[in-house]
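User: Can you predict the 3D structure for this chain?
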Amino acid sequence: MGPPHVQEVPAVTTTPQAVRRASTRRSTAPPDPARGLLPAAEPVRLLDPTGTPLPARADYPEPPAEALAEMYRRMVIGRRFDVQATALTKQGRLAVYPSSRGQEACQVGAVLALRETDWVFPTYRESMALVSRGLDPVEVLTLLRGDWHCGYDPAARRTAPQCTPLATQCVHAAGLAYGEAYQGRDTVALAFIGDGATSEGDFHEGINFAAVFRAPVVYFVQNNRYAISVPLSRQTAAPSLAYKGVGYGVPSEQVDGNDPVAVLAVLTRAVAHARAGNGPFLVEAHTYRMEPHTNADDATRYRDGAEVDAWRDRDPVARLETYLRARGVLDEAAVAAVAAEAEEYAADLRARMNAQPTVDPLSLFDHVYAEPTPQLVEQREQVRAELAAAEQEGDA
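Assistant: Here is the predicted structure, written as structure tokens:
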């Protein structure tokens, strides 16, 4: 499910030495007061909640029809994956699963705006984005299954491990992006962020470093209204989270995160901005998670059913399907084919996740320290002895 090239931007042809010199010059130059930093007063929207197109915008051209058709396909498959992962959690196959149902436009649109050579820095909620990027779903769920590693090779897939500590990926994305630019490559790093993470110090440090050193990073905030149970009103008094970019000298935009066309258009422009050497860009998507924070959360304690129902009427998958049907891009056969593909995808995931993994209990002690401590060695030997005794008892 690798992403097509939604928009190509000419590659950087400068030498590493020239990039380093330019970076040094930019880091000491004062900010330009005339530079546009403020987001739009209202979130960018190209489709209304019913899927009806709104007047075209010159600043955010509509993506090509084939890109939107592929976005629909991945959103349908992504939602089916999410539902299946939630079911696997209830069956005890996963230790925990943070659903992203309702945020499909954000999850898929971010991936489609990138090249395969770009980097993704996810949070714990980006499983759907990772499978949309083409990662094996079983590998994506390995960490949530309770393993000690993320299941895939981050360097090979240019995808950092899913990040549970809030906002730490903001710093990692800034550093990698700066390093790539320093070496003359036109790589863009996209860091997913939740609304709660914008209250963390790592968010400040990451975006500030990226701004000062013009690192090609897109900070993508999915504002789903709650940091677990804390509503947005208890986190910030800013008009929107997109305004946080202004204080760092970073241009920002806010978008209707349940409008797939607008999400892809805004992120495509943000990625092009970063790739062209203009520094970081902050995008805030206004969206909503339909499920609890994780399977361990009771969302009824802090939000009511009427609020959830109101957001259900803004379903991004139905919104895009309606629009593409009206344009003649989708018909009944195409919709049925995508649904069948999604069911096949879920069935394959279910079958492979239901296979009991072979686990060595002694691997629990691996990779805890570079050099095992005496206490760890002692504990390992205790477990080894207990396993041996249990095996002998079973043979008797």
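Residues 78 and 128 are 5 Å apart (CA to CA). The first helix runs from residue 16 to 28.
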